[in-house]
Design a protein that fits this description.
The protein is of the alpha/beta class. The protein has 14 helices and 13 strands. β1, α1 and β2 form a beta-alpha-beta unit.
Amino acid sequence: MNTTKPMRVQSVFYNNPDYYPPMINAAFVLAQHGIRQQLLCREYQPAVMPQGDIDYPAATQVLRLPQAGGGTLAAYLNFIWNVLRQSDPAAEIIIGYDMHGFLPARLLAWLRRRPLVYHCHDYLNNASAATLSQRIIKTFERRFARTADLVIAPDEYLASYMAQELRLSRFPLVAANAPLTTVERSGSKLTAALDALGKHFTRILFRQGRVGPNHGIEVTLRSLPLWARQDWGFVVMGPGSADFVDTLWSLAEQLGVADRFAILPPVDYPAVASFTIAADLGHALYEPAIFEHQFSTTGSNKIMEYMAAGLPLLLSDTPGNRKLLDECRNGLIADVAAPESIAEAVNTILGDDQLARQMGANSRNAFETTYNYAQQYAPVIAQLRQLTTARHQRRPAKSSGE
């Protein structure tokens, strides 16, 4: 009879995992491989978008630690204390997510003598650490990240940057922030939402996610007068400040394109795909002024979600984006500073049905063969098993006595 116990991992995340698709997807992949997980996290999340209850697999226990004080240093120290007190003593591997989760995970791994994994979704570089607590935690990360047995990043170019800045001895493993499955065309909420606004477009350029500056939204509005067809529309969906939304509407009115533009309110993450699937082109333009925008290719949930829905991509000009499009042949690059460049890319794709269909098919094929999360996370599973096996092999054998 096989009496092998399932592997147990301890994960630490200083936020609410319900708002992080890769955290949710990792839980399901771990469960599929018979790995049990205790996820220590906090409930805190700014109320910027709705989120329904996430039905985590039975193999994952989400333990939401009590917290007070919002994002203060005292609240963080309290979180660390609760992690050390309530962690799973049977866990064989400790995983810290992002630098705030890495610090308590590193302490826990040292106390328990367990292998340590640092999985970074959102990397804060040295120059971006602004507050006192960020600088303290960043100093810890720079000192101890290289002691992790495994470092994971969501994008190859971000991994290279981290390897240099953190002086890692081994290049991070790359696991794209992708969905688990493709999206099937079984009805769309996007068309119904636009109908309710009295807007009807024959082709839709769609952007999901935060509606804010540095996301190429204003420059895309400026490109609309140059689009080949007046019945094509630009639709954004997600949370945004009232002031910024008012600014967008003022710009659209000034340009005379308000009838070709729509802003939809945010929806909970499981519902996003049912909107995306009805679009014709996925918008993922990012302005380079923000550090993380330079490394947002496979680290961008929206890019991977567009591919899962079988959409062509409209991407800003970065090395990672160019590499993805060269590999997959599923979209075009546009200069995020030039409305003319954006219009040219939109007209090229939406004006050629055969090209749009081929690019969409290439997106879906690349997702199904390479970029789905089960494929991306498979090397992580292999590494976790190797770390566990190596740890058991290092443990001294128990004496049987006489």
